[in-house]
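Entry for the shared binder. Reason: the reviewer on the internal report wants the predicted structure included alongside the sequence.
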Amino acid sequence: MQSGFIFSLIFAVFIGLFALRNGGPVTIDLFFTEIAMSQALVIIFSALLGALVVYLLNFFKILHFKKEIKTQHKKYESVDADLLVLNNKILVLEEEKNGLLKVIDEKQDQINTLVDINTELPPN
């Protein structure tokens, strides 16, 4: 960013020196009328008009990027909220899984107890 500013300053000084060295009168035809003015003023005005056009184009580009950033931020917030909901569902499912594993262990213990009782009984 700083190098761009330095380049712009050097370029502005160059334009200023160029305009001063070419300061003779010039006639400009503006379709319906003619204007006589210093060539230095024409050069400086043209440079300023060009800078204004670049600034306006950059300004609208920045506005577009800001709008895009807001859109992406809203999408991020939506995805973040979805992630929170899914993490909560995972916790609930893990609790259910742990509960079911306890039930399975209890049933397995009951089965083992019944098998032990069955093996202790004399055959008929």
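Summary line for the report: The CA atoms of residues 44 and 50 lie 10 Å apart.
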